[in-house]
Write a structure and sequence with these properties.
The protein is 49% helix and 13% strand. With 306 residues, it is α/β, with parallel strands linked by helices. Helix 14 crosses helix 16. It is globular. The termini are far apart.
């Protein structure tokens, strides 16, 4: 059996769940699948929108918001399948989504990664930052993903054996920090788990505005510093994560302070360009992220001043 696991937080997930049940019915495979949704303490508006899910899937609500990482760790308790299929609530599914995954349940692998794509119609000025970073960095074609199965792991859409997930699931302490693709990919690599990338992408349904994505990025970078503080002795991990490796190189050269001051002089201009969406340079965006990493790692008290 494949247990389909959907983490919900402040999103209208009923269309996804309805689409999943339709595909199961079309295949006449009701005995081969179960759908389990866990709502991560969404606001009342979204709870009301998703009330219909209880009629077509197992639906649980958490009393407090714990984050996607911690919620993901709860699914084995409420599912029974040999395989766990994780899919984000905003995903738009291809027609043969479940049928494609079924082809791999007998393969001698621990995880199967379907990937994700963006709708080109979302490439407008208001959403360009999220769109460009998503298409160029996070959501690579299957041929490219297959060459780097762990580094390009994407937690938005993947299937994993239950026993494998128990080995690699993120520690609850770390789960609150996000970066699930990074952490799960690395733990699969460290445990030498065969990981297969296939062409079965979902389309990202919710694309953040430039301002929203920039704010989320700052929060993610600050959380990455917390992960670094827990794992700084693991040199292999630090070399693989680009922002951390750049920070470590500057630190060895004694240049963190200089970089922080010099880039800080242009930070407001960079933010204006990224939010405006007319000039979106991923190279400059990486430098922006590195600046925030240095601030969170070395100058946390200055955040309130800027």
């Amino acid at each position: 059996m494949i247990s389909i696991c959907v983490h919900i937080y402040n999103y209208y997930a009923y269309p996804l769940v309805r689409r999943l049940t339709t595909q199961i019915e079309q295949m006449k495979a009701e005995e081969e699948f179960e759908i389990v949704c866990i709502d991560d303490c969404s606001k009342g508006y979204y709870l009301n929108q998703n009330t219909g899910i209880v009629d077509i899937a197992k639906y649980l609500r958490l009393k407090e918001h714990v984050g996607k990482g911690r919620t993901m760790g709860l699914f084995p308790k409420y599912t029974s399948g040999e395989w766990l299929l994780f899919v984000d609530a905003d995903s738009k599914l291809p027609d043969q989504f479940l049928k494609t995954y079924m082809q791999y349940v007998d393969k001698k692998v621990g995880a199967v990664v379907g990937g994700a794509i963006y709708d080109p119609r979302d490439n407008d000025h208001e959403h360009r930052l999220c769109y460009r970073y998503g298409t160029k960095v996070e959501c690579r074609p299957v041929a490219e993903r297959a060459k780097h199965p762990y580094q390009l792991f994407n937690a938005r859409n993947f299937m994993i054996r239950r026993e494998t997930f128990e080995k690699v699931k993120v520690d609850p302490r770390m789960g609150r920090y996000g970066h699930l693709s990074l952490m799960l990919g690395y733990r699969l690599q460290m445990n030498h788990i065969p990981t297969l990338h296939v062409d079965n992408p979902v389309t990202v349904g919710y694309v953040e505005s430039n301002a929203e994505y920039l704010n989320k990025t700052v929060e993610e970078v600050e959380n990455l510093v917390k992960i670094y503080n827990e794992m700084w002795e693991d040199q292999r991990f630090c070399r693989q994560e680009r922002i951390i490796s750049s920070y470590a190189r500057l630190r060895r050269m004694g240049l963190c302070g200089i970089y922080y001051r010099l880039f800080g002089m242009t930070k407001a201009l960079v933010e204006s360009q990224l939010v405006g969406g007319t000039t979106v340079s991923l190279k400059i965006f990486r430098r922006y992220k590195l600046w925030h990493f240095i601030q969170a790692a070395r100058y946390p008290d200055k955040k309130k001043e800027l």
